[in-house]
Batch of 4 targets.
Target 1
Amino acid sequence: MRHYEDEGLIVPGRFGNGFRDYCQSTIDRVLVIRSLLESGLPVRLIRDALPSLTDGSHAGADAVGAEFLHEVQSHRDRLAARIAVLRDQQAALDAYLREARRTDL
């Protein structure tokens, strides 16, 4: 939770003694953050889109939502390109290993 606070993703309340107060809305926000992080989205993108995803209002959400979806699609496309390169590298290594094992016999 402190990491999310340090990243500017949450702003917890404070009790009189200075301890953090994680209310239910903050906990709900953390669940959204975790889900997006587990999907591989960068913190920068999450930070930019988070207000429209968690504030409960829909004012301006369509414009921000469209931009967010465009960014997510771009991130997904870059990820797919990296996966394709890794698959090609894996296939090349598999071919090398098959050939090396065949010549060892």
Target 2
Amino acid sequence: MRRIGSTPAERGSVGANNCPDVLELDDGDFLVIGKSHLLTAPEAERMNELGASIGEGESLVLVPRDCILAAAEQLASEGVAGAG
């Protein structure tokens, strides 16, 4: 397992309860740590318009933009297909 992107502390997190993160497992899949997010009606409608849905056993997780951008930057610099 490895961290993708910067550490929470590098992104300004100072508390143990505010530590969004992206981790890559040994098999190449990703774990994302973020806040649980309940959709508002407008968000749910827009998500449906985009053809996105949340299936059984899936959860919606809110990840701060800076966390995702740091992870995307690292993956793009490593030449991961589809990143960047």
Target 3
Amino acid sequence: MTTRPTGDDLPTVFRRADLGGDEKLDLMEFTLALEELGLSWTRSETQDRFEKADSNLDGFISYEEFRAIMETRGWAGGPVADGPVAHA
């Protein structure tokens, strides 16, 4: 069962997944964060979501990008943000 996280859960999930401690997630760490939230997709679906979340195209997901995609996609509680992430 997927539990919809609240905005307060996201920093904790992000920190746990940030194995390198560099305050950004690579694709593997992003996958870990999604799995912790109960969001499990195929490798190509996860790659697609990673690319959509990476709004500055640096190859990593910052906390701000992580929170934005989680809220924009409705995967987290809180207001739906209008941002650079396109709706699927």
Target 4
Amino acid sequence: MSTTVEPVQNLYQVSGAVIKPPQLTHSPAGISHLRFVLEHLSEQIEAGLPRRSYVRIVVVISGDSATQWAKELNVGTAVHVSGFLNRTEDKNGIGKLVLHAQQLVKI
């Protein structure tokens, strides 16, 4: 008897504005990485009641598109990002979520 395991999904989508200047870096392997902070503000309905939603998240774009987006993104640019979430730790060992962008659209 075999069982089929569904693939686990890790997909996050959010729209917002760039609030810190994007920083382009390169890994030792030569891969480009563009990091910026995205801020989202909205009102969502939860349990039938309105709730303010406020999110600030670091977004990373990797690969060839990182260099292209480095020329196009500035503080205040509105974007819609979709990708996957990953955990990272800062130099103090504090964990935080980072959105690894697989698709980015200016809005």
